[in-house]
């Protein structure tokens, strides 16, 4: 059993807990404080390009609301008449006809209300679906820095929360807005017209309450927006945390960290609890202000009765007036709710559109070229690179030329920048200075898509998705038809064909989230097969063999030997056997390269090779 509160277990040090971004305010981007009207304006401005195209369901919904309000305004005067008829037994004959009309009107009212809501939800949900797709598209366009939380980026869990839950909130907000603009306003005006027609004096008395209420509600709405913002941030923190911890559950167990993680989770859950409680309390308060209207109606009823008893007011008119008032409260409540909805939706809209609202750096220059065929010559010229403003230089004047078809091995201490070099070649980052050429063409002037088609990368951390083996190998063609012949070819070259055929459904076996059902060596060979599938002329193998046992390593090494025949290969490795297959070997240290001769590698003592990061 876990302790209920982290504080009950003093051994869980505050240091562990302080790792958590507990203070929701720490998430807020330091934006200047805007007036609430400008928040509203910005939100409307952001939403309109997505909502306006849905004008068809919107207009249909509004049309239906016209039908429903019209029916209601026909029903209301009938209620007074009806009550008069009911008190008069001779009127039974007339009541049938009146009853039929009333029944039809009620049906029209109900049908109108239903269709109005169905159409407006249709519009709101479609608009938000478009927003979601757009947000995700923009997220995929962001450069790597955006995803690196250390550099002030946004965590995957936060992004996921915005696109899922917050987008749902935005749909509620859009619906509430659409429902207010026409249906509520229409009903409000219709009922006010009815009341004015019956008794202007009573109407004025009833109307006096409204401005006072509006002021109070407006003030509370602004508070609600602020509170909602914090509530969004605490859930985002929960989501970010879960996204990080759940995929690493084995690691948590292996470290006996269940208690610690549970405590960390509780901290986040409780932070969210208090923010949400504040929000719900505020939300519960606003309708109560509006409910005052009901009691106002009761008061009017008493006043009306007094007037009737004095004979100065007609009983039928009184009943119609109060009925109007009751149906007036409905749209006022609707508008209040929409205001509520809008104020708590604004932060969600802001956070969601924060992901859209950036100018994607045009990655391709306007005159960028498409490379159709690449022989595979690669040159790094005097590369300087660091990951951020205040970060140390990772590559410091690195120069390397790889001939077409050549295999170059890269060794060096961990953290030396080997992976970084690979990332630069496929332009996940651009160097601070210096340039990289492929077939004598600066990669910054090659269309990015074209460049990445010609460079295959087997990255150090293997990424596999749930899906079949064939889908994982043919990932590049997921949108098109996966060419099974190429898949099997690639698998054979990568020495993966045999184990794949032994899987329950062969190439059609689902390998589970992140390739759960495969061993390390199998994942590695699958990743190599995937890089081979695209038939690129340049291949980067980033520590493809370091995590493998000797047999798997042999299988992978055979695979690499096979693909050396028709690729330019940059192999980053730690094993001497792998390194010795290469035509040339370089040591990457202190941001620079130094060539190691074969004799150095073979004849040197163990100690002098330690600094190369080689495993012998
Ligand atoms: P290697 O592959 O040789 O082990 P890397 O190229 O992965 O080394 O890393 C080189 C250096 O760059 C390391 O000091 C590492 O801490 C730093 N580094 C790597 N990736 C990032 C990143 N995304 N942001 C900041 N620093 C990074
Ligand atoms: Mg690395």
UniProtKB/TrEMBL annotation:
Instruction: Give the ABC transmembrane type-1 domain ranges.
Output: 99-344
Q: Where are the transmembrane segments?
A: 195-220, 285-308
Q: Which SMART domains match?
A: AAA
Q: Which GO terms describe its cellular component?
A: membrane
Mind listing the GO molecular function terms for this protein? ABC-type transporter activity; ATP binding; ATP hydrolysis activity
Please provide an example of a Pfam family that matches this protein in its UniProt record: ABC_tran
**Family annotation (PROSITE patterns):** ABC_TM1F, ABC_TRANSPORTER_1, ABC_TRANSPORTER_2
Q: Keyword check for Transmembrane helix, yes or no.
A: yes
Which UniProt keywords are listed? ATP-binding, Membrane, Nucleotide-binding, Transmembrane, Transmembrane helix, Transport
How does the entry describe its membrane topology?
Multi-pass membrane protein
Instruction: Name the InterPro entries on file.
Output: AAA+_ATPase (IPR003593), ABC1_TM_dom (IPR011527), ABC1_TM_sf (IPR036640), ABC_transporter-like_ATP-bd (IPR003439), ABC_transporter-like_CS (IPR017871), P-loop_NTPase (IPR027417), Type_1_exporter (IPR039421)
Q: Where is the ABC transporter domain?
A: 378-615
Q: Where in the cell is it found?
A: Membrane
Reply yes or no: does the keyword Nucleotide-binding apply.
yes
Q: What PANTHER family does the record point to? A: ABC TRANSPORTER B FAMILY MEMBER 29, CHLOROPLASTIC, ATP-BINDING CASSETTE SUB-FAMILY B
**How is this protein named in the record?**
ATP-binding cassette containing protein
| Origin species | Trema orientale (Charcoal tree)
């Amino acid at each position: 059993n876990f302790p209920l509160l982290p504080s009950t277990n003093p051994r869980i040090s505050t240091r562990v807990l302080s790792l958590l971004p507990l203070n929701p305010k720490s998430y807020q981007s330091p934006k200047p404080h805007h007036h609430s009207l400008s928040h509203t304006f910005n939100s409307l401005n952001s939403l309109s390009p997505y909502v306006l195209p849905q004008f068809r369901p919107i207009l249909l919904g509004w049309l239906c609301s016209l039908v429903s309000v019209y029916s209601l305004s026909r029903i209301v005067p009938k209620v007074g008449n009806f009550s008069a008829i009911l008190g008069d037994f001779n009127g039974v004959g007339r009541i049938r006809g009146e009853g039929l009309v009333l029944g039809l009107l009620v049906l029209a009212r109900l049908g109108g209300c239903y269709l109005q809501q169905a159409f407006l939800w249709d519009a709101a949900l479609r608009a938000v679906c478009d927003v979601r797709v757009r947000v995700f598209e923009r997220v995929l366009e962001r450069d790597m820095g955006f995803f690196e939380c250390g550099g002030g980026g946004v965590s995957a869990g936060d992004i996921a929360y915005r696109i899922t839950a917050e987008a749902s909130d935005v749909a509620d907000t859009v619906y509430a807005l659409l429902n207010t603009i026409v249906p509520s306003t229409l009903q409000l005006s219709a009922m006010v017209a009815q009341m004015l027609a019956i008794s202007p004096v009573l109407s004025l008395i009833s109307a006096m309450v409204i401005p006072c209420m509006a002021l109070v509600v407006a003030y509370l709405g602004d508070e609600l927006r602020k509170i909602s913002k914090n509530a969004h941030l605490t859930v985002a923190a929960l989501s970010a945390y879960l996204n990080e911890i759940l995929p690493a559950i084995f690691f948590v167990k292996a470290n006996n960290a269940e208690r610690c993680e549970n405590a960390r989770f509780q901290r986040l859950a409780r932070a969210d609890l208090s923010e949400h409680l504040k929000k719900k309390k505020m939300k519960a308060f606003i309708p109560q202000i509006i409910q005052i209207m009901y009691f106002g109606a009761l008061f009017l009823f008493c006043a009306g009765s007094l007037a009737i008893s004095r004979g100065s007011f007609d009983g039928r008119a009184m009943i119609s007036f109060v009925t109007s008032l009751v149906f007036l409260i409905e749209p006022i409540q609707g508008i209040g709710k929409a205001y509520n909805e809008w104020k708590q939706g604004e932060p969600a809209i802001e956070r969601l559109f924060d992901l859209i609202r950036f100018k994607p750096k045009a990655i391709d220059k306007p005159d960028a070229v498409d490379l159709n065929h690449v022989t595979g010559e690669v040159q790094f010229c005097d590369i300087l690179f660091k990951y951020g403003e205040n970060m140390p230089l990772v590559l410091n004047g690195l120069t390397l030329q790889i001939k077409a078809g050549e295999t170059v091995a890269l060794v060096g201490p961990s953290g030396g920048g080997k992976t970084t070099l690979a990332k630069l070649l496929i332009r996940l980052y651009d160097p601070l200075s210096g340039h990289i050429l492929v077939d004598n063409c600066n990669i910054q002037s090659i269309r990015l898509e074209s460049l990445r088609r010609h460079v295959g990368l087997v990255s150090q951390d293997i990424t596999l998705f749930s899906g079949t083996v064939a889908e994982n190998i043919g990932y590049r063609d997921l949108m098109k038809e996966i060419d099974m012949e190429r898949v099997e070819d690639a698998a054979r070259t990568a020495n993966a064909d045999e184990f794949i055929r032994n899987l329950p459904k062969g190439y059609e076996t689902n390998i589970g989230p992140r390739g759960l059902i495969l061993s390390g060596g199998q994942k590695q060979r699958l990743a190599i097969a995937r890089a081979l599938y695209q038939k690129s002329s340049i291949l980067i193998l980033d520590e493809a063999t370091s995590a493998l046992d000797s047999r798997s390593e042999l299988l992978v090494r055979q695979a690499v030997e096979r693909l050396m025949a028709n690729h330019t290969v940059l192999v980053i490795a730690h094993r001497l056997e792998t390194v010795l297959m290469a035509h040339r070997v370089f040591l990457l240290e202190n941001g620079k390269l130094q060539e190691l001769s074969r004799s150095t590698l073979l004849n040197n003592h163990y100690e002098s090779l330690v600094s190369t990061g080689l495993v012998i």
